[in-house]
């Protein structure tokens, strides 16, 4: 073990943490502001959505390539470049005179932030010995979870009282301060080696992951039968199959998929995908229920979800310490039992469920999830040799993005299908009983009431499906074994 591992460079890690926190925070700030931006630039909902879709696509393209960047370039050079791009994008967004400038700014921001998470994870894996990685990754989880937790609530407050540009004006000075500190304080600690970039692999991964992310993200809005949806998914799948076959043949692949020879890493990947999909379902369905069925404001909706996200973030360092002591399996099993029970409780919501009851159940659900994600991921990474860490983190981060998009699309589809069938059956029952009003206004009001009932049924049913998904993750977690440190 080298000197760096014996005494981790805490000042340097703090700089990386703050940089990653700002990047994650920025990612979630804009969602609440989209309606306001739509009005200011006079663009349609499908067009304004590109501010988040474009950001996500650049992430999906660059994260798989992050293994190459982390291996080829020093962590200092990489972080300074990423932070410079992010700061430039933030500045452009704050002053954007036209909508296309704002989209360009978001994509420049994404190019910077895409490398932050894999880079920080690799620095943590290099800086900390394997027996202390749980604590370190727990702190990393705090950053990863707290930023998206604060984002929607902070954004809701700013949009209510100021202009959307303040979202970027708030981030910019912080990004510049982190960049200045990085220039003077960052050192190189990750091992590097000279390697060639396989352009064909980069192209295939961009088309593959980009196609999947775009296709599944658009499915909830455009429908599965839209040509743009099924064609981009099909192109994405074909490109990914060719990409995988190529990686297995290359001596120096862009993304080394031989990491799946390590059983605990392979199992951790599968569990992470399943849990990510279930987590995103809650993040989408809860505000939908709160705002549409209950008529609660977006700001109050954000506040309802805040304790859950804060609990998840604050539990992360605690979970890390427990992981170092007891391993991943016991934590994951307990966490998934809690998550499964809370998700089932969310599948029995009523039209008048209490605000604080929903907050409590959602918080318990997130608390359960906080015991699963980081321990499972860290246990898998612990089995990999040091030289494969960049590939392990790149695969994990890519899969999290893709499973989030796929999970969201599938759960929204399930909800819509259930909603339509329930709405049709309710209307049919009312028609048979002769309870359908004939006056235009009364009929419109009646249809709205039926629509709300049908949506509630759709949300509850989808939460029930999410419960079954968490049960699958629970069964898989029983097979997790602690990695033997002595064999590394």
TrEMBL record:
The keyword NAD does not apply. Belongs to the major facilitator superfamily. EmrB family. It is found in: Cell membrane. Keywords: Cell membrane, Membrane, Transmembrane, Transmembrane helix, Transport. NCBIfam families: efflux_EmrB. GO terms for cellular component: plasma membrane. One of its GO terms (molecular function) is transmembrane transporter activity. The chain crosses the membrane at residues 12-34, 54-71, 78-97, 103-125, 137-159, 165-185, 197-216, 228-245, 265-290, 302-319, 331-349, 355-377, 398-417, 458-480. It is a multi-pass membrane protein. InterPro entries: EmrB-like, MFS, MFS_dom, MFS_trans_sf. This is Drug resistance transporter, EmrB/QacA subfamily. It holds the Pfam family MFS_1. It comes from Psychrobacillus psychrotolerans. Residues 12-485 form the Major facilitator superfamily (MFS) profile domain.
